[in-house]
Fold:
Amino acid sequence: MLWRYLAGAASARTADEMSGPALLIAGLAVTGSPVVASWLLAGLTVSAAAGGPLLGVLLDRARRPGRLLAGCLVAYAGGLLVIVSGLGRLPEAALVAVAVAAGVVGPALTGGWTAQLPAVTGAARPGQADPSDADATPPGGTDPADADATRLGRANAMDAMTYNVAGLAGPALAGVIAGGPAAVLVCVALLVAALPAAWALPASAGVKARRGVGEELREGFGAILGNPALLRATAGSMVSCAGTAMLVVSAPVLGDRLTGSTGPGALLLAVTAACGLAANALVARARGPRRWDALLVRGTAVTGVGMALAAVAAVSGTYWVAVVAAGVVGLGEGPQLTALFSVRHREAPERLRAQVFTTGASLKITSFAVGSAVAGPLAAYSVGAALLAGAAAQAAAVAVLTVGRRSVRDV
Structure:
């Protein structure tokens, strides 16, 4: 079941990472207008902020959340098909509206899947043992709660690896595939390939009592705001994600400044994704309880060091230093994501788990958009300044993650 889940999640997330660049390429190829292309991308991402919390409520209510995720995959694929078939034929405003509608279900491709991981692994809620099992552990034996937490921790690391794979493969596929609309069609094929895995996800242990949607949304946000560990992780990841946008936007500019071509800049992002994948592979192999809160702080700090090193590369004009910097960023980002998922799984109330994950995904997407908006003009002025701003954002995220934390919690 876990491997089917991972294959489906990797396929859906690769399509997610690929869809933005694919729409840019298709929009530019068919219309010849960078403005239209950028509007399509903006429409696809801007609505995720609103869609995530609502989607989480629906997933938490669903008896078979996998069926709902499958419906979201179909809706996202359908939106992409309408856009690519309508380019040059339908009004541009109508196509942007379709992109906005498709983007509402975007968090289903990220946080919506991860919220189902405890059911897939058969693990109880991490960090909480069933009191009825208190006497079931034999002397010198393994606590079932510890075994569940270890299994879920390893699964979290493997799940985070699918993000690294998607971040590596998605943009690369969009750039390699010839033809404007062809890349969008490949996105649709990847979404369709993920359908069987989504449909086969386990049923929910119990259906949450339904109240008004507004009340449930307030309860979901309250679960984040009222839990110090969850609030720190959510806020810290938002600040860090805004800083990461500085690197993503600056990488092509940095590559052009150091080598005279934007291609090596894209390679830097590939190095980041590959190193993140390798780091998460090591986390997945580790056994026993992990200090996820501490790993979240350390991963964020390492990411900041990598961005500061990238700024040094911009000043020194040395490309190999930029490659090393990109690798350091990946070594921090990979475990950082695994730790974030683990903290969410540990702290989120079972009946609000999906809402916590999809809301967190929406907030990160919004933070990335804000960081990108700031990074563009800053990188145009000075790519070194943009990268230093990204490093400063990681330092601020470390401060957010550590303020008020009395001790490191194990799961």
In short: The two ends are 23 Å apart (CA to CA). Residues 2-128+140-402 form a domain with the Growth Hormone; Chain: A; fold (CATH 1.20.1250.20). Residues 144-176 form the longest helix (33 residues).
